[in-house]
Amino acid sequence: MAKVKTQFICQSCGYRAPKWLGRCPDCDSWNSLVEEQVIESPEAKRQGWGLSVAQPPKPITEIEAQEGERLKTRIGEFDRVLGGGIVAGSIVLIGGDPGIGKSTLLLQVSDRLSQEGQKVLYVSGEESPRQTKIRGERLGIRASNLLVLSETSLEEIFKELQKLNPSVLMVDSIQAIFTSELQSAPGSISQVRESSARLMQLAKGTGIPIFLIGHVTKEGAIAGPRVVEHMVDTVLYFEGGASHPYRILRAVKNRFGPTNEIGVFEMKESGLEEVLSPSEIFLSERPENVSGSVVVPSIEGTRPILVEIQALVSPSSLAVPRRTAIGVDYNRVALLVAVLEKRMGLKLYNQDIFLNVTGGIRVDEPAMDLGITISVASSFLDKPVPPKTVLFGEVGLTGEVRGVGQAEVRVRESIKLGFERCILPKTNKERMKKVEAIQLKGVESLGEVVKLLF
What we know:
Elements: E1 3-10, E2 16-17, E3 33-40, H1 42-47, H2 76-82, E4 91-95, H3 102-115, E5 120-124, H4 129-138, E6 146-149, H5 154-164, E7 168-172, H6 189-206, E8 210-214, H7 227-231, E9 234-239, E10 246-254, E11 262-268, E12 271-274, H8 278-283, E13 293-300, E14 303-315, E15 323-326, H9 330-344, E16 351-357, H10 369-381, E17 389-391, E18 394-395, E19 401-402, H11 407-416, E20 421-425, H12 426-431, E21 439-443, H13 446-453
Parallel strand pairs: 4-8, 4-9, 5-6, 5-7, 7-8, 15-16, 17-20, 20-21
Antiparallel strand pairs: 1-2, 1-3, 9-10, 10-11, 11-12, 13-14, 14-16, 18-19
């Protein structure tokens, strides 16, 4: 017979303890252990958690690999992030802040798939069918192949799946789904982990693609154990504040495509609309001949995007000057400010420094170093960078400018938007073919860049 035991389970990492603890010994989270009933049965132990083995082991050289044709959603930015479309049997987890557009995106994707003749089952655990219909009318959704089910019981969802046999399953959200085999409340660590494991087995066994919406914590991570992110094939995160019109959908994990790929959307009354040329959008309101503004070509996944970095340096009246960085790594900014002080002689120790990447996008690659340092120097010296100039490169601790990857792609994107001069590492320029549409200037040190611009 099954035994019922009481355990205290950490809601952040899944650590189990026989008694309550104020702080989790595994992840150091405070007040995260919650009492839950755990049913232990011999049958569950024998069956295990993995998929059943249908065939004996084979040498990898004898296994036939057929990826098959990907299912297109006709939303170009979404297909790009997935790596070219939906893979059969894949399971995708989408996370983001409340109100950022996760449910809106999945409902629009469901509508596009339904218009292509695919039967889509949209399971809403947080809204009634009537509420989903109201939101669908606002988005202009009227596809007859889109079936809406308001249910939170995993067993009932599986029964409907057997009856309907849909092509795609949407679950909104995984924190609302529960299985009756566990006594813990919906949204608990055990329920989220068990429900995700069952859905993963369903996707791999039947070939039905499954999309899951996951709530995020105040730290920005998907609520529930990190093992959920390890179970799924693809993890997508929505970036950008709910009050900002632009949304960035970023792939942080993808077994069937490139990671760190992004898709850009604009939130309108009719839903999310894809932005085909993000560089033009991010630079459309850029002021010219203003100190502290620099344009840098960044690579997000496989896509080049020109972003504007703005810096504001002003004298501080505080004992400890403020350092604020939005859209870039704060520690990287502190390092580059120290390089400017030591190697370039700029006295920034008594200055407040505010740095921002416009458009709500976050960039994290070494090629942004040169743009960050020059924007800070431009604001401090109150000398603007020429408006038709772009620059990129990694800055070392001794002030040298190091080469970066995909330099030709960055230069081509700059030419498309009408820039006339590009300052880049000398090693990158030597490897590039001659380009007549833009003036290339190779540099070896940060001092050369400052002399060229100021």
